[in-house]
Amino acid sequence: MNATLNKVMLIGHLGDDVKMHYFEGGNCIGRFPLATNEVYINKSTNEKITSTEWHNLVVRNKAAEICEKYLSKGDKIYVEGRIKSRQWQAEDGQTKYTTEIQVTEFTFLTTKKESEYNKHTIGNVPDSIKNSNFDPHNSHDDH
After folding, report:
1. Measured between alpha carbons, how far is 118 from 73 in angstroms, rounded to an integer?
2. Cα(112)–Cα(15) distance, rounded to whole angstroms?
3. For 48-76, what is each residue's pLDDT tens digit?
4. 35 in Cβ contact with 52 (< 8 Å)
């Protein structure tokens, strides 16, 4: 079998509001951190331990605008996407690295703004949004 798969599924809470970045030509991206938690019991102390993992999420174009409009810090969301690593030169000349989740589909689970849109759920992102031609290497984005 020659096929490979790069697919991520997460359910978590936003660690901050969606931060938007606009490019020439009208494209945009939204970025936000997502927290997922693992809870377990320490067998020697019977203490309940919560371990939080942070994920950097990136949404594009119309999907980014929808997320910016309806999501805020603390909201719970389900996302599907793929892992993408990239690097860039910081202003001080240092090479910086990051790993992000490029979101392809999402569903709002709970939002603080639910009353504004009567528990409206955004489901599968249309192909026109999924297949946008955002290229992080040509976006002139500093991070």
Report:
1. 19
2. 14
3. 999 999 999 999 999 999 999 999 999 99
4. yes
